[in-house]
Design a protein that fits this description.
Blueprint (H helix, E strand, L loop, with lengths): L1 H15 L1 H12 L6 H7 L6 H6 L6 H13 L24
Length: 97
């Protein structure tokens, strides 16, 4: 479970300090890691009313259900696929927001 909390802390750092997170990650990802502008544009996608209530990194069941339904409709997932088979919030620390 320690890695999960470390991931959440990294996500929190990225949300609070995109430039710092980009600088730290740049050596590992290089040009394949995109640009700081892309990261800054992505930060709002990392947070929502759901994550503010359930913890940063928590998957919103409604969002997952919608995404899985779209993939079923496209034929990318079999009919009857359930969103709960693709994510869990069991390891999310609800205090990290």
């Amino acid at each position: 479970m320690g890695n999960d909390k470390a991931s959440q802390r990294g996500l929190k750092y990225t949300v609070q300090n995109p430039a710092g997170a980009f600088k730290v990650a740049q050596p590992a990802f290089g040009k394949a890691g995109g640009t700081l502008d892309i990261l800054k544009a992505s930060v709002p996608l990392m947070q929502s009313a759901y994550t503010r209530q359930h913890g940063l990194g928590a998957g919103d069941p409604a969002g997952w259900t919608k995404a899985v339904a779209a993939l079923v409709k496209q034929g990318k997932l079999p009919a009857g696929a359930q969103a709960s088979a693709f994510y869990t919030n069991a390891l999310i620390d609800k205090t990290l927001r």
